[in-house]
Amino acid sequence: MLRLEGVRKSFRMPNRGQREVLRGVDALVRKGDAIGILGRNGAGKSTLMRLIAGVDHPTGGRIERGMSISWPLGYGGALHGALSGADNARFVARIYGRPVDWTIGFCEDFAELGRDMHMPVRTYSSGMQSRLALALSLAVDFDCYLVDEMVAAGDSRFASRGREELMARRGRAALIFVSHSEELIRSFCTSAAVLTQGRLFFHEDMDQAFAAYRAL
Amino acid sequence: MSDRPILPEPSLRRALRVQMDVLGALIMRELHTRFGRENLGYLWLFLEPMILAGCVALLHELSGHGLPGGMMAFPFYIISYTPHYLLRAILTRAPTALEANLPLFYHARVRLHDVLLARTLLELAAVLIAMIAFLTGLGIVTGTWPEDPVMVAMGLVMTAVLMHGMGLMVCAATAFGHAAVERVVHPATYLALPLSGAFFMLWWLPEEARQLLWWIPTVHIYEFIREAYFGPIVPYHYDLGYLALWMLVSNVLGLLALRVARPHMEA
User: How far is B111 from chain A (nearest CA, A)?
Assistant: First the structure.
């Protein structure tokens, strides 16, 4: 279970005081939920994902994490550029208490990096980075996956593999999915919420959510 | 695939296990990123403090003027410079704990304090190894061994604990602006060197100066380490209770400051 209560986040602007991006977000996410988050550019979707992942901390309210939560997938942000792919895998395996050799093997297979697995991640293309990041998150086997406008992960063949793997985890894991694509959200998610004016509005019905989103 | 759930029943034991997993992983990672696997690699960890402390001590030894009370110059400066190296390593790295480790904070279970703690432990290990190597070498060459080697090591541990607390506060202060804090900390560690007690002893000084300098916590650590090395050949002035209070207060305040500052620090 993941619970957000009155979560607020403001940023200090250079010379211009504060800008409040989130103004009291409430949410309850259980295992098996698959929620699409809709919102215009700059509505705070990525900020919300970063708070849920624990990358940044809220300036108000609480986030209660009763399950393990992935980093926002779709970026290489969780990877360390100076370390090799294998060392990154070692690190992630260690912090989440996963068998190290198994994790490296899984990533080698899944991300199809071959010898590049032993090269520093900063030499990777962005496609290779997101493949590795996705492979790592699958190896950890999180209870809740955060997917931020991804599945631009690598070429289309890999993107569909990534989608398949996440689909296969629906039901036992939760999924929070940020995208502008109506098609992706409809195929992935069971409900949707609209983020606007710093608050999150949930809709049980997909059509209703999209109507609210288009009316923004 | 491993069947071990990531979040089984919440308990103190589980929290401790996670903490140990995270700390171990952070230390390994810091070793990899800072020293790589090429050339001398990890050796630099303790070669760096050894070279610096060795050069400083050698310069003083060669300059030829002895120390009051018949203390040997070379070991005196070795056991003085090494804690100072530790102090500087912890404090000057504290402002970059967040910025230099952004990818780490994509993992919810890695907290800023874990990163700072991993670094402190690593720096402490480095100076302990450097100190052991020096004192062993010195013992073999000159035949003089530390009076109480365990207490010499304890002195370094106390330096690490005190500086860890100070480092937490320095790191928290970066919420107000990272560049400013870095600009202040670097010169401050140099300017504070003459007052820190690294290069003087209280009994060399007149009573008034002694009373003023007594308030500086690091002075107590240096005096303690010297007694541990040289034994009772000169008078030493330190108060472990006073030092313990500093260690406790700095760490408690540092943790609180970090907690308050963290929402205003963006990874």
Answer: 9
| Residue with tokens 């779709």, as numbered in its chain | A74
Coil/strand/helix, residue A12: strand
Which neighbouring-strand residues pair with A147?
A: A73, A177
A97 touches chain B (CB under 8 A): yes
Q: Find all residues with CB under 8 Å of B41, minimum gap 6, and list them.
A: B35
Q: Is B6 within 8 Å of chain A by CB? A: yes
Judge: B103–A79 Cβ closer than 8 Å, yes or no: yes
Query: What average pLDDT does range B82-90 have in this prediction?
Result: 94
Average pLDDT for residues B32-43, to the nearest whole number? 73
Q: Are B160 and B166 in contact (CB under 8 A)?
A: no
At A8 the pLDDT is: 94
Residue A63 CB: number of other CB atoms within 10 A? 19
- ipTM > 0.95, yes or no: no
Q: If we measure between CA atoms, which residue out of B102, B93, B142 comes closest to residue B120?
A: B93
Least CB-CB distance to B263: which of A59, A68, A71? A59
For the segment B255-259, the average pLDDT, to the nearest whole number, is: 95
| Three-state DSSP class for residue A200 | strand
**Amino acid code (one letter) for A101:** D
Which strand (E) or helix (H) includes residue A198?
none
CA distances from B23 to A57, B8, B118 (A): 21, 20, 6
pLDDT digit string, tens, across residues A83-142: 899 999 999 999 998 999 999 999 998 888 888 999 999 999 888 888 898 899 999 999
How does pLDDT run across B107-165, given as a tens digit for each residue?
888 999 999 999 999 999 999 999 999 999 999 998 999 999 999 999 999 999 999 99
CA distance A57 to B34: 27
The Cα B23–Cα B30 span in angstroms is 10
What is the C-alpha separation between B139 and B145, in angstroms, rounded?
Answer: 5
* Lookup result for tokens 């032993």: A118
| Residue B163 and residue B251 in contact, taking contact as beta carbons nearer than 8 Å | no
CB pair distance less than 8 Å for A99 and B110: no
**Residue A161 burial (C-beta neighbours within 10 Å; 0-12, 13-18, 19+):** middle
Q: Which two tokens stand for residue A103?
A: 């994790």
pLDDT beyond 70 at B2: no
